[in-house]
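User: I want to check something. If I give you two sequences, will you return the structure for each one separately, not as a complex?

Assistant: Yes, each is folded on its own. Here is the first sequence with its structure:
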Amino acid sequence: MDAREVGTLRVMTYNLRGLREEVDALVEVVRTARPDVLAVQEPPRGLTGRARLRRFAARTGLRVAVGGGGARTTALLVVPHRSVREAAGMRLPWRVGLTRRGVATARVDGVRVVVVHLGLRAAERARHVDLVTRRLLRGEDGPVVVAGDLNERPGGPSWHALGGAAGGLQDAATAGDADQPTYPADVPRLRIDVVLVDGRLPVLGAQVPDHAAVGVASDHRPLVVDVHLPEP
């Protein structure tokens, strides 16, 4: 996947586990993959979270397009030469005892990118997916990518609901022959990480990296997808 065509967008989704450990390994994984867009789950939070995320982005050759605020458990990093518009974080409804979650979204080179990190409870996932599809996906007239950690296996309700949004989105890993487990990173057994794309973005390739740093950098393995951008 290193020899990219003109008009290709590389999207990588990765749970950073708050940058709590093995940051050098995380940097190596991202720099090796060379994404144009990094859909982040579990960015660092708290008083120093935004500064730490900016430092991480700089080390990987990216910039923070969305981070902190309403994005909460998500962030969006983009290479400097890609155009970014309509960047925003959206808070998701919260109940006492659960994690405060959010969504990061922006239009990158004309593609609406939506980053999600769904919860561990099925009922909460259903509520949040319904809100994301109604507010961000339904009625969207440009190409769409949804990337993130669904905390759910392929074929589950969240996959079906998000896949049916925006006129129908396909699982890029399956289309790109990379239907491989992503969790846990050291001995992966489940695929709960996803990049969904619509038909206007043909999948050129996909992979789940498996070099040494991947097994120690996070508790997830990333998914990296190349899509072909439509003509302007």
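And separately, the second sequence with its own structure:
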Amino acid sequence: MVSTQELMANNGLSELILSIIPANIFEMLTGSERTSTLSTVLFGMFLGFSVLQVKKRKPEKVQGFIDFINSAKEVVLSMVREILKLTPYGVFALMTTFMMTNDLFALAEMGRFLLASYTAIIVMFGLHLVLVSFFGLSPKTFAKKTWPVLVFGFGSRSSMAAIPLNVETQTQRLGVDEETANMSATFGTSIGQNGCAGIYPAMLAIMAAQVMGIPIDFNFIVQLVAVIAIASFGIAGVGGGATFAAVAVLTIMGLDITIVAILVSIEALIDMARTALNISGSMLSGVITAKRNGSLNTTQYNAQSIAPIQKESEISA
């Protein structure tokens, strides 16, 4: 099996892009190639687009296929749940092997990784505030009004569970129109997660590359950024979603995925901050999009008083 680095060295970026286009969808689903994950994402996007096109013209023709996909999804999710029940045993075995073959200094390294993760997340929060000020808005106001949602995400470790609070905060406190708020909050749970699908896989990829002796040069960074951007599509906004994102990125890059299992013991501690960062990114997208579209209510955004969030039933009453 050819690694991504070897493919890039021998054929260049153009060949890597062409290798993502599946020639045989059944072979692609077996995962026999390093680019199988990206090929699956590409095929899924194209299939979904085609289904939507047919649904517009002849909805009755495609309804059976949609029902089949939904049924298959439920079956696969049931299988995943059963497999996840065995995960603690596998993690215990890997952790036991790690402890038997390493000393206490290895545990200290895990603490350093935890500290490095929080440092990277804090820096990204700072970049969010810089982007807010770049578009002529007050970063202090943004931080003050989004703080309750971030705290909820930090505790729940689920950006998906925070969607209602996310939307209500954008519309009632930040002045974002309802359509933009709904789109940014929903997309933010599965696409472009700054923490779970961005920072965490990137850090693990760098660590794995160093262990394997792979040079971290400009070409490696470009490959990693491209792979992370594509692989971030469809990452579930629930606790532990970053683990699947990291496995996908490491597999595509041809790196050792054992490091993911080793860090599972502290993954929950990192996941809390990552989730808060994901939610901040989705709200930032909503605010900036509304600002660019001219639909942002700046008076509501700049209002110093923070009114309690009202439920839809209370508003309609």
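Because they were folded independently, the notes below concern the second chain alone. Residues 104-134 form the longest helix (31 residues). Confidence is low (pLDDT under 50) at residues 312-317.
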